[in-house]
Design brief:
The protein has about 400 residues and is an alpha/beta fold. It has two domains: about 15-35 and about 295-390, Aspartate Aminotransferase, domain 1; about 50-290, Aspartate Aminotransferase, domain 2. It is built from 13 helices and 17 strands. The chain has helices spanning about 35-40, 50-60, 70-85, 95-115, 135-140, 145, 165-170, 195-205, 260, 275-290, 295-315, 340-350, 370-390; strands at about 15-20, 25, 30-35, 90-95, 120-125, 155-160, 175-180, 185, 190, 210-215, 240, 250-255, 320-325, 330-335, 350, 355, 360-365. The strands form four sheets. Strands 4-12-11-10-7-5-6 form a seven-stranded mixed β-sheet, sandwiched between helices. Strands 1-2-3-15 form a four-stranded mixed β-sheet. Strands 13-14-17-16 form a four-stranded antiparallel β-sheet, with helices on one face. The radius of gyration is 21 Å and the shape is globular. The two termini are about 35 Å apart.
């Protein structure tokens, strides 16, 4: 008999009652160091006081009034995103998949309005993950996500991530955009090189394509800059954002340059709940914290410390760990054992991490961790590796 809660997740039998900073607590009082952060969502940790204040304050004023009316919070947050990014305009929705869908619609309509409706196809990358809707699983192109959902939504051509030659060869008269994660997350943490990102911009400009970045997981400070592509000194035409922008509250956004954003005129796109006053209050508070002087520099510094210590750990435990890769506080530990075995052992020792493709364990800690959290995490990782080397006990 099917349970009341639809069984779409292989859930671990543990439930948390409250959170504080980088820590989660069960009803029994067990404390876990959270280096998964809701899969890169709780960017400022659990119950950050600035976010709690913003949410409760807005909750006592106005929750929802619909996009039939002006929402001043949207105007404020959009202006701040425009001021601090490449973008000229922003659309708010509720999730990463919605943001990707909006960007895809924007790209199609841009070319349609410019007299080239045949330019609807998007070049996407092998190993990508862009969401769970019919269009976004087609954009991701992974067989495990597409299985059982035929016919696959058309309009996507896949090339190897990081290969500019194959990308260039895949461009046809029907190509309208390039969709890429600057750091692939779900497939096991694969950062794009600076040269690759710069090459993407060059190819897009050469063929008149829109460059569409998915920074849902790697954006909002996770790599030590507000957005990952900023390390390469280039910018996209469209960018999807979610996860960290809400710090745990469901928010998505599409940022775009004027030529792309102008394609979505009144009536061509919308969202009932997108950009509601609660979401905008939280997003504003997230930006307050992340844009404060020294915050992103601090993320970069602690990320480098964590990375170096993980590399030393991997070198000391080659029977358990292989390559350490990633960018900032988006780190993949390639495993020499089954990644689930390491995840289970870490959880038993009170450290939470996330699985990734390619037999990888993902570490996605809150951006507010300090050296004490790194010390605690490394001690648990060391203990867990030793136990696995001894047979898992």
């Amino acid at each position: 008999m099917i349970p009341a809660l639809m069984p779409t997740y292989a859930r671990t039998d543990i439930a948390f009652e409250r959170g504080e900073g980088a820590w989660l607590f069960t009803a029994d009082g067990d404390r876990y160091l959270d280096f998964a952060a809701g899969i890169a969502v709780n960017a400022l940790g659990h119950c950050h006081p600035r976010l709690v204040e913003a949410l409760t304050g807005q909750g006592n004023a106005l929750w929802h009034c619909s996009n039939l009316y002006r929402i001043p919070g949207q105007e404020s947050v959009a202006a701040r995103l425009v001021e601090n990014t490449f973008a000229d305009s922003v659309f708010f929705n509720n999730s990463g998949a919605e943001a990707i869908e909006c960007g895809l619609k924007m790209a199609r309509r841009y070319h349609d309005l410019n007299g080239a409706p045949e330019r609807y196809r998007v070049i996407a990358m092998e190993g990508a993950f862009h969401g769970r809707t019919l269009a976004t699983i087609a954009a991701g192109g992974q067989a495990k996500h597409l299985d059982g959902f035929d016919p696959v939504v058309q309009g996507f051509d896949h090339v190897p991530f990081g290969n500019l030659n194959e990308l260039r060869a895949a461009v046809t008269r029907e190509t309208g955009a390039i969709l890429v994660e600057p750091v692939q997350g779900e497939s096991g943490i694969h950062p794009a090189s600076v040269e690759y990102l710069q090459g993407l911009r060059q190819v897009a400009d050469e063929f008149g394509l829109l460059l569409f970045f998915d920074e849902i997981q790697c954006g909002m400070g996770r790599t030590g800059k507000l957005f990952s592509h900023q390390w390469a000194g280039i910018s996209p035409d469209i960018m999807a954002v979610a996860k960290g922008i809400g710090g745990g509250f469901p928010i998505g956004a599409v940022l775009a340059v004027e030529k792309a954003a102008a394609a979505l005129t009144a009536g061509t796109h919308g969202s009932t709940l997108g950009g509601n006053p609660l979401a905008m209050a939280v997003a504003g508070a997230v930006l307050d914290v992340m844009l404060a002087d020294g915050f992103l520099d601090g993320v970069d510094a602690i990320a480098r410390t964590l990375r170096h210590r993980l590399e030393d750990l991997a070198a000391a435990h080659p029977k358990v760990l292989g390559e350490v890769r990633g960018a900032g506080l988006m780190i993949g530990l390639e495993c020499a054992v089954e990644n689930r075995a390491l995840l289970d052992r870490l959880r038993a020792n009170r450290l939470l991490a996330a699985p990734g493709g390619g037999n990888v364990v993902r570490l996605l800690p809150p951006l507010v961790i300090d050296e004490s959290h790194v010390d605690e995490a490394l001690a648990i990782l060391e203990k867990s590796c030793a136990q696995l080397e001894e047979g898992g006990h």
